[in-house]
Design goal:
Blueprint (H helix, E strand, L loop, with lengths): L4 H10 L1 H10 L16 H22 L5 H16 L4 H24 L7 H44 L4 E4 L2 E7 L4 H17 L4 E8 L5 H16 L3 E5 L3 H10 L7 E3 L2 H7 L6
Parallel strand pairs: 2-3, 3-4, 4-5
Antiparallel strand pairs: 1-2
């Protein structure tokens, strides 16, 4: 029997179940934290089975030069799913490698069964097509995986940024902004936006900025702090500062920055006492 692209596709599809079963049987029995674990519930196994048979269908279609869009979409959708389940990307790459090997083994069987009727150049071309299909799918998979994880990371960073610049209401109209850690350009921008928004939403009249937790103080920190205070003053918020380190004070003087009408206290407790707030 002469083998053609169409008969090769048919052969692959006829053995799709066998290939999928073989792949599933090779799952690592010791893993217990990824979708590829042998301990996954049956619904997850059926999800893998269905997804893998779709992959076989799309790769087989590539052999007869049919549209590759479905294959790319499969890679993109599956990449997002794996990322949403926190499946390590190296686990997915390992599984793609395993299944590619299984797929090529069945391809080899189909060629060997009629080896005397298939020119080497044609067999090589089909093999190249299959490998290209896997590569295109993996490229879409990794791109989608990256976009999802990067988006999740940015969302987490935004949450951390908000938590790192908390405007804490003490009494009506009085709030404290405790700053901890380093202040870089990115955090300074977040500090400006978040402080102005929170002060407005919480009807803050007096804001006490506590700098005792700022470990690194330099010219940039002094400049950004001045910008924040100036912006707050423009919105009608009176600013007081506590915990100013000698290094920061030196930077402020060196820059010629004048914090006119700004009360400076040694520590937060002293500032709160001045506002009539005492610890019982």
């Amino acid at each position: 029997m002469k083998i053609t692209s169409q008969t090769l596709k048919t052969y692959i599809l006829e053995h799709a179940q066998e290939m999928t079963d073989q792949w599933l049987s090779l799952r690592n029995r010791e893993e217990d934290y990824s979708i590829y674990s042998n301990h996954m519930p049956m619904e997850r196994v059926e999800e893998l089975r269905k997804s893998n048979r779709e992959l076989i269908q799309y790769i087989a279609s590539k052999i007869v030069n049919e549209s590759v869009e479905e294959l790319k979409n499969w890679g993109a959708i599956t990449g997002e799913k794996r990322a949403s389940l926190y499946t390590p990307i190296n686990r997915s790459m390992e599984q793609f490698k395993v299944f590619r090997g299984i797929f090529l083994t069945y391809y080899e069987k189909s060629i060997l069964s009629v080896s005397d009727q298939v020119p080497f150049s044609q067999a090589f071309e089909w093999c190249k097509t299959i490998n290209n299909a896997f590569d295109e799918m993996i490229q879409q998979f990794t791109h989608s995986y990256f976009l999802y994880t990067n988006g999740r990371l940015k969302a987490q960073e935004e949450m951390i940024d908000e938590l790192s610049t908390p405007v804490i209401s003490i009494t009506d109209g009085i709030a404290v902004l405790p700053l901890v850690g380093d202040i870089d350009t990115h955090r300074a921008k977040i500090l400006m936006e978040h402080t102005l928004n929170e002060s407005s939403q919480k009807d803050v009249d007096c804001l006490i900025i506590d700098l005792s937790g700022v470990l690194v103080v330099d010219t940039m920190v002094a400049q950004e702090l001045f910008k924040v205070i100036s912006a707050l003053n423009l919105t009608g918020v009176e600013v007081s500062i506590t915990g100013m380190r000698p290094e920061l004070a030196s930077s402020i003087v060196g820059l010629g920055i004048k914090f006119n009408n700004i009360k400076v206290y040694n520590n937060l407790e002293q500032a709160l006492k001045d506002f009539g707030i005492k610890r019982h």
